[in-house]
UniProtKB/TrEMBL annotation:
CDD domains reported for this sequence: DEXHc_priA
Cleavable signal peptide: none
Role, per record: Initiates the restart of stalled replication forks, which reloads the replicative helicase on sites other than the origin of replication. Recognizes and binds to abandoned replication forks and remodels them to uncover a helicase loading site. Promotes assembly of the primosome at these replication forks.
UniProt-recorded name of the protein: Replication restart protein PriA
Length: 730
């Protein structure tokens, strides 16, 4: 049956269905283009279910009007998502093959996603009217109203300021308002401390980079490759200052654990404009206000982690992605976007520069820079007279290790403390020991629900699975052979802390890992507690990121052997990045730095290359290997992951998916495989890797394939997801 078309709103909802939903406008309202980008509350699903969605279009529907429901409420008078941002979000949905509604929900801060009103970040205040100014100039009766009026003639005042300046001011304000001499108003938020700290004189390399940035216009991707401590942040600050001077805003992305109050403080102190922060340590309300401040142009700069890439800018001028190689830019669930890649997409649509900065750029970015697609700026030397740290490899084969530490490493720490300086002892493993083994029969404690060993914690009194969180008490005797010779094998940060405390009883000792930094700003407090005197920091990769501790002169790396033999094709790149970053914490100021690297594999080619040629040599070699093997950045990957209660269900789905994959020239669907961790939290896991020499045919195949997957019966028995450009093949 045909129906007369009726005007409808196309609404994107945060549900896992790749389509919009049509709704009638509320009674009496006409759907027009001004609806696009506004949030609406709509009935959805059974009963009185409701959802908050975003209007993504207006049109007509020829469906039975009786089947169409009206929108319950329009939540925004002005579009929340529009222009370039909405376009970039549509691009995101297309590229990652994710439903637009889910992408839009991912892009909105939690409060707005939940349908809350856009917070008003201005403050309620009072101002004098022109009549009030005349009255204040004329002689008149003394009293509180006059006192208040005189204050307001000097400047508009916020209500909270009036509370302190003129307690009990409200009756006086009412009296002025009745006579038309003053009235309520809204004020811009209190300006941040606008005193600016001095910029250091730029090094020639920094000055050259800044000049190159000034010389560019429009969309310009820039890779700023600068060794650790070379002053990349200083270059960002100059570029941001230029951008602000031109009346524009800058959006700065930093890695998840890089956004310390110290880092923010550096931006705030130098730029002299309100700098908004956006990260997971803030409340929903704080995040929403930061978003609004940037969207409405009140903040000049926003510094934020991954999801800040979706913040709207009123006057876009510059995007910066600091530590662009960092793994935290990739979202690992839901919409699996890469914030660095989206920053490039946004900059291109906005026609503005985007700076990617790193001492250890990702091979993807490096490849783009080397092939001329990005402007490649280099800072080869440390700033401020610091020299690069000396690196020593300690061969610990056949040497006795006490709690994982060699005598030479301990000597180096002792010498550092004796000089009154600070040492960082690095081990990328938290807990007491990575595994509990039976010295007699070789049994080891495994998680019952995962294919993984349980980590020993609390000095040996507890076992915790780092993959599913399961906890257990260690057995008294070996469950297999009843031997009492159960021993924690290897060392994590907890064990190192204990051993170092015993060896250096007087020294300040601070452990920094996920356990000790759960609280907000715990990291900053830990680093501060180290003070200026001699001391030891023990910790995981949390310490590898952008910290600047002038007294830190020794970095002791306790074994990286786990990383040398991983099957993941990115393992070498990641290990080299981690080593360079952590080594880069040593000797950043005037004191010379030293790095000691304890290993059982001193002859491993990766270490040799790294020592002699640094990161550029490792990267060049890795790029050549990737080209030969057909891996990114010379190929494009997508990974279909599935998990279910049984392995059979996973297999059935992946086999059917494999058979259904549309043939395309240059695109290959590899045979389904168990995931590297085939069982996790009691669920079987498998995956199917797609690779292609070109992007377009891969995406064309995916577009054809996904509807087939959704229709498969076997898909109902599994949880599956597609990851475009996966960074981890697990
Ligand atoms: N031109 C300069 N003159 C003097 N000191 C400088 C200069 N530029 C930067 N510095 C100082 O050098 C140190 C390192 O700078 P910055 O933190 O910007 O380096 P970075 O390249 O971002 O480091 P990393 O990548 O290792 O985190 C800081 O203490 C900074 O204040
Ligand atoms: Zn587990």
């Amino acid at each position: 049956m045909d129906f007369r078309p009726v005007p409808v709103l196309h609404v994107a909802l945060p549900v896992p269905l790749p389509r919009d939903f049509d709704y009638l406008p509320p009674a009496g309202a006409l759907p027009g283009p001004d609806w696009v980008g506004c949030r609406v509350r709509v009935p959805f699903g059974r009963g009185d279910g409701e959802q908050v969605g975003v209007v993504v279009g207006v049109g007509e529907s020829g469906a039975d009007p009786a089947s169409l429901k009206p929108v319950l409420a329009r939540l925004d008078a002005q579009p929340l998502l529009q222009g370039e941002l909405l376009e970039s979000l549509r691009w995101t949905a297309g590229y990652y093959h994710a439903p637009l509604g889910e992408v839009l929900a991912t892009a909105l801060p939690g409060l707005l996603r939940a349908g809350q009103p856009v917070p008003d970040t201005r403050r309620a205040g009072w101002r004098a009217t022109p009549a009030g100014r005349d009255a204040a100039a004329a002689p008149g009766r003394k009293g509180r109203p006059r006192e208040l009026l005189q204050l307001l003639c000097e400047q508009d005042l916020a209500e909270d300021e009036l509370d302190t300046r003129l307690p009990g001011w409200r009756p006086a304000a009412r009296s002025l308002a009745e006579r038309g001499l003053a009235g309520p108003t809204t004020l811009e938020p209190a300006a941040a401390p606008l005193a600016r700290s001095e910029a250091p004189t730029l090094t020639p390399a920094q000055a050259e980079a800044v000049a190159a940035l000034r010389g560019s216009s429009g969309f310009q991707p820039v890779l700023l490759e600068g060794v650790t401590g070379s002053g990349k942040t200083e270059v960002y600050l100059q570029a941001i200052a230029d951008c602000l001077a031109a009346g524009r805003q800058a959006l700065v992305l930093v890695p998840e654990i890089g956004l310390t109050p110290q880092a923010l403080g550096r931006f705030r102190a130098r730029l002299g404009v309100p700098v908004a922060a956006f990260h997971s340590g803030l409340s929903d309300g704080e995040r929403a206000r930061a978003w609004v401040d940037l969207a409405e142009g009140r903040a000049g700069v926003l510094v934020g982690t991954r999801s800040a890439v979706f913040c709207p800018m009123a006057r876009p001028g510059l995007l910066v992605v600091d530590e662009e190689h960092d793994g935290s830019y990739k979202q690992q669930d839901g919409v699996r976007y890469h914030a660095r890649d989206l920053a490039l997409v946004r900059a291109s649509k906005l026609g503005i520069p985007v700076i990617l900065g790193s001492a250890t750029p990702s091979l993807e970015s490096l490849h783009n820079a080397l092939s001329g697609r990005y402007l490649h700026l280099r800072l080869g030397q440390r700033a401020g007279g610091a020299s690069p740290p000396r690196v020593r490899v300690l061969d610990v084969r056949k040497r006795p290790l006490a709690d994982g530490l060699s005598g030479e490493l301990l000597d180096a720490v002792a010498a550092c403390l004796a000089r009154g300086e600070q040492a960082l002892v690095f081990k990328n493993r938290r807990g007491y020991a990575p595994v509990l083994i039976c010295h007699d029969c070789g049994w080891s404690a495994h998680c019952r629900r995962c294919d993984a060993a349980m980590t020993v914690h609390a000095g040996g009194r507890r076992l915790i699975c780092h993959h599913c969180g399961a906890r257990a008490t260690p057995p008294d005797a070996c469950p297999d052979c009843a031997s009492l010779a159960l021993q924690p094998q290897g060392a994590g940060t907890e064990r190192l802390e204990k051993a170092l405390a015993a060896r250096f009883p007087g020294a300040t000792l601070v452990r920094v890992d996920r356990e000790t930094t759960r609280r907000r700003d715990a990291l900053g407090q830990h680093l501060a507690s180290l003070g200026d005197g001699p001391g030891i920091l023990v910790g995981t990769q949390i310490l590898a990121k952008g910290h600047d501790l002038p007294r830190l002169t020794l970095v002791a790396v306790v074994g990286v052997d786990e990383g040398l033999f991983s099957a993941d094709f990115r393992a070498g790149e990641k290990l080299a990045q981690l080593l360079i970053q952590v080594a880069g914490r040593a000797g950043r100021s005037t004191l010379p730095g030293e790095v000691v690297l304890q290993t059982h594999h001193p002859d491993h080619p990766l270490l040799g290359t790294l020592l002699h040629g640094g990161y550029p040599a490792v990267a060049a070699l890795a790029l050549a290997e990737r080209e030969a093997a057909g891996f990114p950045p010379y190929a494009y990957l997508a990974l279909l992951r599935a998990e279910a209660g049984t392995e059979a269900a996973v297999q059935a789905f992946l086999q059917e998916a494999h058979a259904a994959f549309p043939a395309r020239e240059g695109v290959r669907a590899n045979a389904p495989m168990p995931a590297p961790m085939a069982r996790r939290a009691g669920r079987a896991r498998g995956q199917l890797l797609l690779d292609a020499s070109q992007r377009p045919p891969l995406h064309a195949a995916l577009r054809e394939w996904l509807p087939l997957l959704r229709a498969m019966r076997s898909a109902r028995k599994v949880r599956w997801s597609l990851d475009v450009d996966p960074t981890d093949l697990y």
